Amino acid sequence: MTTGEPHRFRTLPDRIAASPDAILVLVVLVIFMDMMIYGLLIPVFPQYAPRLGVDESVIGVVFGIYAAMLLLFSIPMGLLSDRVGRRPLIVVGMLLLALATALFGFSTTVAHLIVARAVQGVSAAATWSAGLALLADTCDPGRLGEKMGVALSAVGLGTVLGPVVGGLLFEYAGYTATFLLPAVLVASVGLLVLAVPVRTCRREGGRGRPGMLPRGPLLPLAACAAAIVMVSGTYGVVDPYLPVYLHATFSASPATIGLVFAVLAVAAAIAQPAAGKIYDRHGGSRYLIGGGLLLSGVASVAAMQAPTLVLVAAAVFALGITLSCALVPAMPILADIYRGQGSQGAAYGMYNTFFSVGLSAGPFAGAILAGRLPLPAIFLLQAAVLVVMGALGWLVIGRLGWR
User: Fold this and answer.
1) Is Plastid among the key words of this record (predicted)?
2) In the predicted structure, residue 367 carries a pLDDT above the cut 70
3) Which of 239, 312, 345, 367 could disulfide-pair with 133, CB 3.0 to 4.6 Å?
4) Is 203 helix (H, G, I), strand (E, B) or coil?
5) What are the residue boundaries of the structural domains of the chain, listed by start?
6) 217-403 in CATH: which number?
């Protein structure tokens, strides 16, 4: 009877804090807001930039600075969350995102835009590293793949809705309101995170500082890094160059191109929770990661060989599924690698870093090759790399003995 008393008199916030499902909702909301704000700028900036005298090269810098900040700050933010706890970093990240969004609304020079995008990248490093680590801290390891898949599905939803919301607000409310209204919403989400108590995830001071690298062999970490970089690198090529290919080959309009990318996002949002659930219940990382990369190469080839836009969209849908299968299992595997030293912040700081490496390298590689090869050849080369890395992943994962 005595042991039951504390449970009986727990407050409602305590019960919410103790619920992994409530934590999942918070993390999904945070990730969704980050990606929606990320996409908000896509339809707005090209129309607003001429007023500032901004050319195409500066547009690339403004968009690229986000990935650069994510690359630089993800590991430090993850390690910091191991020291001070997850919730403080999530709250700070959301407030920084609100500040960055408001800065976009008041920007009158290119320097303002660059500063705003840089703050946005730092905020993403904080919220993603701490948010995913919080999921790993509070979730049953046997369901972590599914939970991570659900969290990542918020990326697709935010990616689809962000440009739509941005375009509608810009058309009917004007440039400043396009950013001020979402800034208020983001700040409200940050305060919501602050209001809901969650389990403290700090390391005790006597246990030493959390390490950036896991103890033991580094081959498992390298295998995760390769899988994550290959997936994000594929997105890094598809995002800037597939629209050019669709317009040149099929005279696709911006709206049609947007629909094709919506197909990609929807495929990922459907496949990621499913891939996570399959991994949790049956394992099969060798088939999901190795086979996912290999089939992603096949889907890329199919997209380039498709004679109609509808068949291209079908191949893109398949690509979203196969890339998701390759990505999601790496997230619980990273948690297992770092769990022994209590550094889940470091684990997902690494995840963000690996993902941003591929996301940054993809466009640069495409830009180097674009002057030498036609676009279909670039995508076919990418497909060949995916097939090779998928085969290597199949062999390496079998050697590592992952479930």
Assistant:
1) no
2) yes
3) 345
4) coil
5) 9-199, 217-403
6) 1.20.1250.20
